[in-house]
Structure to design on (401 residues):
C-alpha cells in the first residue's frame, strides 16, 4: 500500500471518530434536557405545599397565643405590658399607658411571612425524596394574604429537579389555610375600641363590688365599729372577678344573650354579626393592684355617738384604685377551629374608670421600697418644724411587682 493511501485512511478514521464523538455528545446533551415526567416530581410539590401549610398553621397558632404577635415587640416586653403565663410564655396587652399596642394587619402578614421564610429550607431538604437531585435556586419570596375565610400563602422559589439525565423545575407554590384570623382580629379590635371608649369592664367591676361584700359607701346604726382587713377585701375581689367575668356575653357573637341578663353581663361591643364565641378570663395569680382610701391594713368605719343617748352611727366611704389584667378569648369553630387571645388592663382610679391611667414600673422607685425616708413638715407662716404632724402619701400610679 502506498504511503498516500495510508495517510488518507488515517484522515478518514480521524473524521469518523470525530463525527461519532460529536453525535454522542449531542445525544448526551439532548438526554440531559429531556423533561422529567410529572409523576416523578408531583409528590415533591405536594409535600412542599403541605409543609408550607403546616408552617403557616404553626405561625398562626403562635399569633393566637400571643395577641397576634410571633415576635413580641421590645416596647411591650420592656414596659411589662403583658400577662405572665406559665414559664416563658406571655400574653401581650393591646393597650397600655394610653397607647394602642395591637398589631396592624400589615405587621401580622410581615411576621407570618418571616416565620415561614425562616423555616422553608426544611420543606425542601428532605430525605424522603433521596431518589431526586434537588437544587434550590435563589432566595424564596413569601407572600401572605389575610382573607375573610382563609389565609393564602404563596411561595416563589425555583427548585431544579434531576433524575437519570431528565430534568424539571418548580417555581411556585400556593396553599390556602382555613384560619379566619382576619375576622378574629376585627372582632378583637371592636372589643378593645369599645372598652377604651366606654370603659365597660371598669363599670362592670364597680357594679360587681357594690353587689357583693366589698365596702364602698354605707351607714349603719350600730355602736360597734365595722372593720375590713384590706387583704381580705382584695382576696374577695379577686374571687368575684374570677367568678363574674366569664359570665359576660357579647352581642353579635355565637353566645346566647338573655333578655333578663344584668346590663353588666351583656357587652354590646361587636358591631356586626360574627360567627365566633368570646369569653373573658381573670386568674387571681395574675395579680391585682388595689389601694383603698382611707388606706391602711384595716379599713374602718367612722363611728359617731350622741352624748347622753344610746345611739351610734357608723359611716364609711372608701375610694379604690384598682388595676388588674383581663384575657379575652375568641374561639372560631370554622374548619379545624382556631383560638385567638389578647389582653388589656382594667383601670379604676378613685372609684371611677380611668382608661388613661399610667402604670409606671419604675426600677428606681421599686428598688427603694425598703429605704427609710425622713420627712419634716414646716409651718407655712413661721417656717418652723411642726411636731407630731400627720403625713399621708398617695402613689396610685406606682406598680412594683
Amino acid at each position: 500500500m502506498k504511503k498516500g493511501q495510508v495517510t488518507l485512511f488515517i484522515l478518514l478514521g480521524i473524521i469518523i471518530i470525530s463525527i461519532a464523538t460529536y453525535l454522542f455528545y449531542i445525544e448526551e446533551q439532548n438526554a440531559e434536557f429531556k423533561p422529567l415526567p410529572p409523576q416523578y416530581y408531583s409528590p415533591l410539590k405536594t409535600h412542599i405545599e403541605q409543609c408550607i401549610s403546616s408552617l403557616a398553621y404553626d405561625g398562626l397558632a403562635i399569633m393566637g397565643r400571643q395577641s397576634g404577635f410571633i415576635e413580641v415587640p421590645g416596647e411591650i416586653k420592656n414596659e411589662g405590658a403583658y400577662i405572665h403565663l406559665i414559664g416563658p410564655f406571655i400574653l401581650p396587652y393591646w393597650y397600655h399607658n394610653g397607647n394602642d399596642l395591637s398589631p396592624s394587619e400589615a405587621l401580622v402578614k410581615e411576621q407570618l411571612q418571616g416565620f415561614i421564610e425562616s423555616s422553608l429550607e426544611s420543606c425542601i431538604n428532605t430525605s424522603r425524596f433521596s431518589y431526586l437531585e434537588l437544587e434550590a435556586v435563589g432566595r424564596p419570596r413569601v407572600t401572605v394574604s389575610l382573607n375573610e375565610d382563609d389565609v393564602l400563602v404563596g411561595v416563589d422559589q425555583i427548585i431544579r429537579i434531576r433524575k437519570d439525565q431528565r430534568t424539571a423545575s418548580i417555581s411556585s407554590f400556593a396553599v390556602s389555610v382555613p384560619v379566619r384570623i382576619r375576622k378574629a382580629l376585627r372582632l378583637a379590635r371592636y372589643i378593645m375600641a369599645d372598652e377604651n371608649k366606654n370603659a365597660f369592664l371598669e363599670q362592670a367591676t364597680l357594679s360587681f363590688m357594690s353587689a357583693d361584700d366589698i365596702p364602698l359607701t354605707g351607714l349603719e346604726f350600730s355602736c360597734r365599729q365595722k372593720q375590713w382587713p384590706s387583704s381580705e377585701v382584695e382576696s374577695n375581689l379577686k374571687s368575684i372577678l374570677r367568678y363574674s367575668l366569664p359570665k359576660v356575653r357579647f352581642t353579635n357573637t355565637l353566645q346566647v344573650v338573655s333578655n333578663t341578663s344584668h346590663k353588666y353581663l351583656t357587652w354590646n361591643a361587636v358591631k356586626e354579626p360574627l360567627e365566633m364565641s368570646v369569653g373573658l378570663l381573670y386568674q387571681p395569680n395574675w395579680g391585682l393592684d388595689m389601694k383603698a382610701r382611707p388606706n391602711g391594713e384595716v379599713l374602718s368605719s367612722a363611728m359617731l355617738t350622741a352624748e347622753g343617748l344610746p345611739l351610734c352611727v357608723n359611716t364609711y366611704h372608701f375610694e379604690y384604685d384598682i388595676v388588674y389584667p383581663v384575657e379575652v378569648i375568641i374561639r372560631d369553630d370554622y374548619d379545624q377551629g382556631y383560638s385567638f387571645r389578647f389582653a388589656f388592663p382594667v383601670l379604676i382610679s378613685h372609684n371611677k374608670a380611668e382608661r388613661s391611667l399610667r402604670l409606671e414600673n419604675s426600677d428606681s422607685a421599686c428598688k427603694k421600697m425598703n429605704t427609710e425616708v425622713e420627712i419634716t413638715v414646716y409651718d407655712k407662716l413661721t417656717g418652723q418644724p411642726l411636731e407630731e404632724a400627720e403625713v399621708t402619701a398617695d402613689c396610685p400610679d406606682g406598680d412594683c411587682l
Notes: The mean pLDDT is 83.
